[in-house]
């Protein structure tokens, strides 16, 4: 029997935000290779008999030994295993999927992709702020603030990031937030532009820190969040009305 | 008993790509107000006793009588109904959610947001191409090619859209694709930039048209797709290897 590999999006954290298809793959897997950023509650829904292997950090960080992961996927599938490569959020956003898909195809391994709710969408839902807004934010962009050497990429299109008519969501940007904010301010972004950090969006432990692009980095540094974070930057996020609540603690919306 | 309104993402079309949470809301709703772009297979999963009301086109089109929709949501919730406002893809991407949330809050109606897999993610999964790629596409942006007057917005940040290191996904852009492509070429985008149209991404009837930013619009005009479409533009999409297959018919990946 031929094995297979599915790249499966784990969603932003709340296990309830898995897709039906992702759940089915998790419940029929022989082996699951998962990122550190996947919420424990999601893994708990996987088939109990499945072997679960942590393969480290997700994305562009140096700790991610991509070649080893790919070799494992190919070897397991060649041995007839149904393999799930479980990625935080969606597999096609900052997940190095093209490299994995290309290598698996070259090795003759059947591949399927199961999309997921990416962290930006989870955070927007949790905060109850839209990523786009008629006239005000007709464009939304996702960036990662880590190059593969672990530093802030220097080839950003700064004009695109400072555009007052766009919303931006920065993935994996906590340690880079200070320098990223400085650069944006140097390049002319309005210092009053709303900016919001969401740690562990949609998890029970979700935390939010609200400010502007000029003030957020210092507030975040004081809290030093350790979980997966996204930073939302843009005029549309002025619609966030959580300021009345403690801004550095989880404020889950009341259940209906 | 107080009613409530949930803005629920229907996902890109395949009912299997609903989240567990969205399914639960659909199965406990009294009334469902749905967009035309919501796939019939998704609606079929809703509670049979729920009243289902079509409220027309999604997004920025003039056919969308936003004030009437908001008035209906408030009235139904005020009468104690559990209301689901079902939106194609994710409610926080091109869905006018901020207007609805703000009006509902002002009326004292409890609101919850259930995110969904937005069309760009569904299309990327279906095509097996990543929206981002290390070094090649560190930024991904979603735009809509309709202003509220139904024309191409003239305040786009063209530099951001022509950036060779970004991927772009255009929502609801089929009729605007010709003029959008022309403008991008005028502003200096590489004419060889890969461009892909996906109609009804993840539906059984999915169709794909592959070309470059210079050739796609004419190919699309010849086919004249009527279903919801996204257009993917960027160097990362060179990884799409469906050219060998008929490019203007659905080529669903084989099931695992």
Write the CATH homologous superfamily of the largest domain in chain A.
Tetrapyrrole methylase, C-terminal domain
Named CATH topology of the largest domain in chain A: Methyltransferase, Cobalt-precorrin-4 Transmethylase, Domain 2
Please write the string of helix (H) and strand (E) elements of chain A: EHEHEHEHEHEHEHEEHE
Total beta strand runs of chain A: 10
How does the helix and strand content of chain A classify structurally? alpha/beta
Domain count of chain A: the total is 2
Oligomer: homodimer
The dominant shape of chain A is: elongated
CATH architecture of the largest domain in chain A: 2-Layer Sandwich
Give a summary of the structure in a few sentences.
Two copies of one chain form a homodimer. With 256 residues, chain A is an alpha/beta fold.
Mind explaining what this structure looks like?
The structure is a homodimer of 256-residue chains. With 256 residues, the first copy, chain A, is an alpha/beta fold. The first copy, chain A, is built from 8 helices and 10 strands. In chain A, the strands form 2 sheets. Chain A has a 5-stranded parallel β-sheet with strand order 3-2-4-1-5, with helices on both faces. A 5-stranded mixed β-sheet of chain A has the order 6-7-10-8-9, with helices on both faces. In chain A, strand 2, helix 2 and strand 3 (51-54) form a beta-alpha-beta unit. The longest helix of chain A has 13 residues, at 66-78. The N and C termini of chain A lie far apart (47 Å).
């Amino acid at each position: 029997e031929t094995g297979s590999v599915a790249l499966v999006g784990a969603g932003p954290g709340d296990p309830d935000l898995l897709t039906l298809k992702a759940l089915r793959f998790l419940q029929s897997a022989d082996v699951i290779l998962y990122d550190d950023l996947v919420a424990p509650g999601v893994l708990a829904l996987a088939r109990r008999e499945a072997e679960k292997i942590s393969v480290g950090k997700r994305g562009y960080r140096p700790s991610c030994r991509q070649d080893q992961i790919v070799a494992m996927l190919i070897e397991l599938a060649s041995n007839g295993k149904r393999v799930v490569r479980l990625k935080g959020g969606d597999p096609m956003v900052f997940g190095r999927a093209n490299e994995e898909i290309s290598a698996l195809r070259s090795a003759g391994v059947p591949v399927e992709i199961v999309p997921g709710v990416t962290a930006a969408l989870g955070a927007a839902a949790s905060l109850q702020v839209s990523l786009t807004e008629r006239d005000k934010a007709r464009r939304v962009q996702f960036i990662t603030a880590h190059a593969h050497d672990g530093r802030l990429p220097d080839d950003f299109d700064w004009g695109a990031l400072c555009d007052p008519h766009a919303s931006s969501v920065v993935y994996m940007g906590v340690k880079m937030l200070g320098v990223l904010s400085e650069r944006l301010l140097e390049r002319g972004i309005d210092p009053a532009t709303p900016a919001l950090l969401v740690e562990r969006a949609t998890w029970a432990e979700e935390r939010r820190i609200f400010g502007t692009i000029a003030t957020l980095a210092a507030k975040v540094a004081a809290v030093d969040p350790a979980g997966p974070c996204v930073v939302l930057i843009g005029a549309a996020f002025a619609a966030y009305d959580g300021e009345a609540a403690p801004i550095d603690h989880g404020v889950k919306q009341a259940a209906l």
